[in-house]
Amino acid sequence: MLGCDIIEISRIKKAYLKYGEKFLDKILSNTEKKIFMEKEGSKYFYLAGRFAAKEAVVKCEDKKILSYTNIEILNSKTGKPFVKIKGVVRDDLKISISHSKDYAIAVCAKL
């Protein structure tokens, strides 16, 4: 299975600026929210990347019942992203996130 998503960073930034904490509560886990709040210049790249990554995971898993807050996209000590669902690391899911000036894209593959 494979899932892919692309999102305009400006769209995510606009949603955050309009809805604030409510928007974060729908998208990020508590751990991810903490990371987002500590970011400075790249916080909207982070948020858009996480949104795209979670959407890619949902598409890959083919389970629309997955809540974004049940999916965590974290980084290893080397910076490589990995997926946790409901607190369990999913070694069978590989995730890649990339950004340009205007877009964030993520691909998730189930091995």
UniProtKB/TrEMBL annotation:
Biological processes per GO annotation: fatty acid biosynthetic process
Matches recorded under InterPro entries: 4-PPantetheinyl_Trfase_dom, 4-PPantetheinyl_Trfase_dom_sf, ACPS, Ppantetheine-prot_Trfase_dom
Domain 4'-phosphopantetheinyl transferase, first and last residues per copy: 2-108
Cofactor needs: Mg(2+)
Gene Ontology terms, MF aspect: holo-[acyl-carrier-protein] synthase activity; magnesium ion binding
Gene3D superfamilies in the cross-refs: 4'-phosphopantetheinyl transferase domain
Highest taxon of the lineage: Bacteria
Catalysed reactions listed for this entry: apo-[ACP] + CoA = holo-[ACP] + adenosine 3',5'-bisphosphate + H(+)
EC number in record: 2.7.8.7
Keywords: Cytoplasm, Fatty acid biosynthesis, Fatty acid metabolism, Lipid biosynthesis, Lipid metabolism, Magnesium, Metal-binding, Transferase
Cellular compartment(s): Cytoplasm
Binding site for Mg(2+): 5, 55
Enzymatic class: transferase
Annotated Gene Ontology cellular component terms: cytoplasm
Protein function: Transfers the 4'-phosphopantetheine moiety from coenzyme A to a Ser of acyl-carrier-protein.
Family named by the database record: Belongs to the P-Pant transferase superfamily. AcpS family.
Protein name: Holo-[acyl-carrier-protein] synthase
Source organism (scientific name): Deferribacter desulfuricans (strain DSM 14783 / JCM 11476 / NBRC 101012 / SSM1)
